[in-house]
Amino acid sequence: MGKLESLFSPGENMIAVSLVIERAGYAVIQDLGRPGLAKLGVSANGAGDQVSARMANILVGNSESSPVIEVISSEFVFTPDCDSLMSVTGAARTVFIADLPHDTHETIVVGAGSRVVVPGSEFGQRTYIGLNGKLQGDQILGSVAPDGFLEFGQRLTSGLKIELQSNFTQEASGNDLPVFRFSALHETYSHHFNLAATIGPDISRLKNGEQAIAQEFQVLPQSDHVGMRLSGTGLDLDTAGEILSRGVPIGAVEVPPSGELIILLRGRLVTAGYPVVAVLTKGSIDKVSQARPGDQISISLIEMDKAQVELQEIESKLTNTKTRVKNAFISRGWQALLS
Amino acid sequence: MKNLKTSFSCQEYGDSAVLINIENTDYETRWLTTQSLGDVLRDKTSIGIIDVVASFQTVFISFNALVISHAAVFEIVKEHLQADLEPRTPNYFKLPVLYGDVYGPHLNHVAEVCGISSQEVIEIHSTQDWIVRFIGSPVGAPMMDGPKLPVSVPRLQTPVARMVPGSVAVSGLQSIIYNAPSPGGWQVIGRTPVKLFDLEASPNMPFLAGDRIRFVPIEFSQWESWNRYFHQVKI
Fold it and tell me: Cystine design at B218: which of A298, B4, B88, B96 (Cβ 3.0–4.6 Å)?
């Protein structure tokens, strides 16, 4: 009976799980960032691929903004010392638990002491690891997200031990089998990214505007979380005067005088003064965060109503998975895992 | 109450933002209207507005497009621009600055570009108030208009990779203070010892758009006494 009661009082029966990190190429504690702080000149930052980070949390019953592990273009290996409920989303297609392969984008039970290997992916670059409970990490302005300007962030390194507070105290049933099939939304990546954007306020400043955008661009290595630089041809601006600094959205496609394209990402400064010829849809901002230097990018301009339909579709897929996870957890007697 | 009724245009700016251009003929009125509109919209997070950037003559508004539409945001903007918007009463600050030398590595270059002496640059920079037009990136950087140098100062050919926090810099006819160790392309003429951004404090920084800042030249011997957070000294 004691066990049953604990299911209805989350928090009281929490256990501390240690994760020993064996190998970390480039990995950080991450969440959805700090939107809404433009008045302090603080950038949004947070997971480059927001939908994947949210899905990682949804699959383990967490609130969507809980901290996750973001792994960029590298392998990540760790071992939990207690049974844990885990998800892997984003670029990785397979995860190995005690040497057995499992599909990503599902809810997985990891047995205590089982070695988890999240391989570096062939395509795409950001992988998210969600773990039921709360990853321990410092926060600044309400978020664990790294911010270079605030000189803040928690980079994970080989040999480090991190702590997790979890409600997943049940005996894992069948350590090496995924217990559910949620078929969560996931993108399949290649070295070519088709992105959608709506027209930007300064499209008329670009000679041959829409035609100039309809070409294949290549991601340049000078890209970072502030902006992705793309090489292209014939990106000539008219000579009209300077644009006074103004707010810019994440996903803004800017044309600097150098004739490249810059796509502003989540670390973007809150104001900028280059002409903005297009703005990526929210779904495409997530997608482009998965593009690596050398990958090809094409941008299609779509109507605003289509962009809104896309946004709603993504959201309803997240909501559907959330509902299925909730129902499955409840039927299993795992109410305490939901937050 | 000052009447700020105004002409303006609205543009969709991606699937989750709009850009409002304030189009009054006069620069000061455009800026005052922009700031007043920004102030009222910043409080509207409950209806789905996420963030507001009010700069010189544009208000950028990002929102949760699942909760509110572009058209609904335009309506709210129109409503507020038809009403009387009240500009905020400015606060006045005196900010100590150590000019030149390693603290202002580009002071001599700015003087050269302007065709005056370094001392004259300091005098122009520090004998009149600067107006904080808005707070920008990185981290609480006040964008200021103020006393005019003889020429519009160009950006650095090669940006500084890591600005020392407190760096006071000029570009064009404007001045800025870098509070974070970020890259930057403006010419640094001095440094303030006062730490202007405190994550632990509320508010996190002393300035709001509209405030006035007078820079006060100090000697190296005075540095330590000012080397505090803004709320620990009287500025």
Answer: B96
Q: Same domain, yes or no, for A96 and A74?
A: yes
- pLDDT band at A5; cut points 50, 70, 90: very low
Q: What is the rounded CA–CA span in Å between residue B23 and residue B45? A: 26
- Put simply, the answer to whether A149 touches B139 (Cβ < 8 Å) is yes
Instruction: Write out chain A residues lying below 8 Å of B199, CB-based.
Output: 140-141, 150
B216-230 as b/e: b if 16+ CB within 10 A: ebbeeeeeeebeeeb
Residues A209, A148 share a domain: no
Q: Looking at the partner chain, which of A141, A197, A270 has a beta carbon nearest the beta carbon of B53?
A: A270
Give tens-digit pLDDT for A187-214.
Answer: 889 999 999 999 999 999 888 888 888 8
Q: Which residues of B touch A150 (CB under 8 A)?
A: 139, 180, 199
Inter-chain contact B136–A269, Cβ cutoff 8 Å? yes
Q: Which residue of A has its CA nearest to B136?
A: A41
- The tens digit of pLDDT for each residue in A147-186 reads 988 989 999 999 999 999 998 876 544 444 546 788 788 8
> What is the rounded average pLDDT of the residues B163-189?
93
Q: Which of residues 4-43 of A touch B (CB under 8 A)?
A: 35-43
Calculate the average pLDDT of chain B: 92
Beta bridge partners of A96: A101, A117
Q: Report the C-alpha gap between B104 and B67 in whole angstroms.
A: 48
- A242, A241, A246, A240: which is closest to A207 by C-alpha? A240
What is the average per-residue pLDDT within A271-279?
A: 91
**Range of the structural domain that residue A109 is part of:** 2-189+314-337
Of B14, B57, B136, the CB nearest to A251: B14
Residues of chain A neighbouring B181 (CB-CB closer than 8 A): 149, 151
pTM listed for this prediction: 0.91
Residue A318 in contact with partner chain B when CB distance is under 8 A: no
The whole-number pLDDT of residue B172 equals: 87
Quickly count: other Cβ atoms within 10 Å of residue B28's Cβ. 10
Both A200 and A168 in one domain: the answer is no
Residue A4 has pLDDT above 90, yes or no: no
Neighbours of B62 (CB within 10 A): 25
Is B57 in contact with A244 (Cβ distance < 8 A)? yes
Tell me: do A196 and A122 sit in the same domain.
no
User: Please, what are the domains in chain B?
Assistant: 8-82 (3.30.1360.40), 92-232 (2.40.100.10)
On the 0-12 / 13-18 / 19+ scale of CB atoms within 10 A, B170 is buried
Q: Is the complex ipTM higher than 0.85?
A: yes
Interatomic CA distance for residues A175 and A168, integer angstroms: 13
Are the Cβ atoms of A304 and B15 closer than 8 angstroms?
yes
Regarding whether A320 and A203 lie in a shared domain, the answer is: no
